[in-house]
Amino acid sequence: MSASTLEIISEHACFGGVQRFYRHHSREIGLPMRFSVFLPPQARDGRVPALMYLAGLTCTEETFMTKGGAQRLAAEKGLMLIAPDTSPRGCNFPGDSESWDFGLGAGFYVDATEAPWNQHYRMYSYVLELLALIKENLPVVSSGIGITGHSMGGHGALVLALRNPALFKSVSAFAPICAPTQCPWGVKAFSGYLGSDQSHWQQYDASALMAQQTAPFPAGILIDQGSGDKFLPDQLFPEAFEAACENARQPLECRRHADYDHGYYFISTFIEDHLRFHHRQLNGAPR
């Protein structure tokens, strides 16, 4: 299988469109990778804007499509949904499945520099590779790509958008890890993937990246956070990203929701707000 060949694993009729699961050989990862795409009914007649969703720890390319509840409104709005896997599969590195927050299912959307992870764990570059592959093979509006994600994937969405504002026209997140250089999840992952020199970590910290910019997304960024999230006090630090946005004059709507936790009941409750947010920006709202 060549790097540009997409193999359809399965497809399912869904709200007048089609839900597909794909496999392809990744140049960046050096292994087969899987991803999922929801094609709205409008994609039969022409190109449509797309929203990429990056999932969190332990998830796969299936998680959002089966639990997020996004396809109904995406079909109504004519929005393609794209969800990659969260790590390479089949590396069989020693220790890659010993903990749920590092290794398998926990690629953290970084390009590893430490052995053995640097052989295959290049999830930052993989997302960009997948985006190019989607533009080459599916009916997407090339200038109409948004990105969102949850937890580890929220971190990935913010970082990818801030480092590639010309590629992503809109960005949002659910309960993102906003300052991974300061929390246990991030320190564990970055130490293992990137080494002990913390100066190399800053390029994957959304709060640090925002501090270096001035209003990169003037139409605004949307974040939703549950106040009942058990990871909020020690892992997520939305206040760090809020402070960075304030200093950068970046419009940000960071909504706190009483009682909601970290899971997909929370995400499915507010996903339609995010779809509408991206639909507005991808269909003509100014940058």
Can you describe what's shown?
The chain has 287 residues and is α/β, with parallel strands linked by helices. It is 31% helix and 22% strand. It is built from 9 helices and 9 strands. Strand 2 and strand 3 (32-39) form a beta hairpin. The longest helix has 19 residues, at 264-282. The model has no long low-confidence stretch (mean pLDDT 96).
Count of runs of 4 or more consecutive helical residues: 9
- Give the tally of β-strands: 9
Distance between the termini: 38 Å
Structural class: alpha/beta
Secondary-structure element series? EEEEHHEHEHEHHEHHEH
Instruction: Report helical residue fraction.
Output: 25-40%
Q: What is the CA-atom radius of gyration, in angstroms?
A: 18 Å
The whole-number mean of residue pLDDT values reads: 96
Q: Order of strands in the sheet with the most strands? A: 1-2-3-5-4-6-7-8-9
User: Which spans have pLDDT < 50 for at least 5 consecutive residues?
Assistant: none
Give the strand content.
15-25%
Mass-distribution shape: globular
Strand count, sense and barrel status of the largest sheet are: 9 strands, mixed
List keywords for this structure.
287 residues; single chain; alpha/beta; 31% helix; 9 helices; nine-stranded mixed β-sheet
Topology:
Layout: E1 7-14, E2 17-25, E3 32-39, E4 48-54, H1 63-67, H2 71-77, E5 80-84, H3 123-137, E6 140-149, H4 152-163, E7 170-174, H5 184-194, H6 206-210, E8 221-226, H7 232-236, H8 238-248, E9 252-257, H9 264-282
Parallel strand pairs: 4-5, 4-6, 6-7, 7-8, 8-9
Antiparallel strand pairs: 1-2, 2-3, 3-5
